[in-house]
Every structure is written in structure tokens, then in C-alpha cells.
Amino acid sequence: MLKRKNEYNYFDAFADLAKYSYKLAVALNETLCNFDHSNISEKVKAAHEIEHSADYAKHDIMNRLVKEFLPPIEREDITTLTQEIDDVTDSVEDVLIYIDMFNIQSIRPEIIKFTNLIVTCCKAMDEALEEFKNFKTSKTLRDKIIEINRLEEEGDALYVDSMRNLYHTSKDPIELMCWTEILHRLEKCCDTCEDVADIIESIVMKNS
């Protein structure tokens, strides 16, 4: 059956939503690689504008779904996947918020490794969602999902190494508290990308 020209494409909407996560991950990485404490509030504001745009895109999907007679996949799956993608964007923004809130003056080297990894994770998620529209015939979607899982495992290992290094090199309780929380937020970015991959895999299984 031919698709009507004005028919809403949820798969395109998922891919568009993921691009906000990737854009914010790139902004986070660039901010921390060129860290300047004096302008961190401006960077947080810019990040929030990206997150706010992502919220509008998420609400548009939900508003479309309310009026949809027969969505291409289950309504619950559309709702869950939309929220999980949005959670990635929120988690990336949280990292900058906590760096500002804790008045961080300089960035530890291992943090840059983490933000580089988050950019890679978000890019992999973006690519998986671009391919998701072809899930019934795709030869590469499964590999893209596996890659996100691999990157999340890399994030777990980096988290453990970074925490070990933190507690071996610092005895200052405030510094330990601040960086422990920030590292937790960084790890969560990778975890939420994997959550998106898990939902995609579940949808594919249910519709195959």
C-alpha cells in the first residue's frame, strides 16, 4: 500500500529526536575539552535550549500518537522509545548542570575520555534509529545494536577505572563527592543509550 504524502512517519521522528542527543553530546564534549569556568553558565543555557527543542519534538510525537488511528508499531512501544531517547538528551544535559552546580574549576583528564565515548554512543544510537525504519529487511540494524551494547560496556569499564583513579589520587571529601556524582552522570549517558538499543531490539522481535 502506498503511503499518503501527509502521513506522519514515526521512524523519521525517532531518528530526528536522537539527533538532539547527539548534538548535545558534541556540545558537552567541546565544552569540557575547551573548559572555561567563566562561561559555563552560558554553556548550560545553550545546552538547555537544545534539550528544550528535544522536548518539543517529543511532545509532537505524543500529540500525533493521540490522534493516530493505526500506528505502525504498538502505541506503548512508541511511547517508551520516545521517552528513552529523550532520557539520553536529559542525561547529557545533567552532566553540564552538575559541573556548573558543583562549581568545578578544572576538568580531570579521564572525563574527556568519557565525553568522547558519549559522543560515539550517541552517534551509534542515531545511526541505529536511522536504520530502524528498515527493521524488517535491514542487514545492519542488529550490528548497530550490538555496537551500542559494546560501547556501554566500555563505559562501565571507564567508570570503574575513573572512580578508582579518583579515590587513589584525591583525599578531599568535597572533590570526591563532586566527581563521584559527575562520573555517575557520565555513566548514565551510556546506560540510557543502551536502553534505547534494548527497546529497538524488543520492538524488532515483537514485529518480526
From TrEMBL:
Which superkingdom is the protein from? Bacteria
Query: Which family does the similarity line name?
Result: Belongs to the UPF0111 family.
> Under which name does UniProt file this protein?
DUF47 domain-containing protein
Organism of derivation? Variimorphobacter saccharofermentans
